Amino acid sequence: MKGRKAPLARELSVGEVARRSGLAVSALHFYEAKGLIASRRTAGNQRRYGRDVLRRVAIIKVAQRLGIPLATIGEALKTLPEARPPTAADWRRLSQHWRADLDERIRKLTRLRDHLDECIGCGCLSVETCPLRNPFDTLAEEGPGARLLEGDGG
Length: 154
Ligand code: FES
Description:
Keywords: 2Fe-2S, DNA-binding, Iron, Iron-sulfur, Metal-binding, Transcription, Transcription regulation. By secondary structure, this protein is mostly helical. Helices cover about 50% and strands about 5% of the residues. The chain binds FE2/S2 (inorganic) cluster.
């Protein structure tokens, strides 16, 4: 008696990936345009994704939830092997790295919050004296330009 054959590893359409990942098709197109995921095109010019895309998309979603910039996520995904889906060990490595990044952003945000306490009720917004205008004493090293606060932490 013949054993039951395992189902073939089938490629996924963009609609299937969207349904299974909970993402909009437009988001998948965006990720692909940013180089975070990849597909091949059929003869009819339709996208087809390997099944590993579901784990990659899961990693992207979690990383975005942590506030990791897309460019950083893309760099991390490039370190994953293309021949197989990301494993638990891969995720452990990436998440440890992002934990450190998250800790650093929390530290900076905590400092900003504490400075904000000093500013409440003041309103001077003085470059010389307001701690929120130069919270990390780094702006002088970066040169002139409008990047106060907004440039920190992505
Ligand atoms: S607004 Fe005056 S110290 Fe920040």
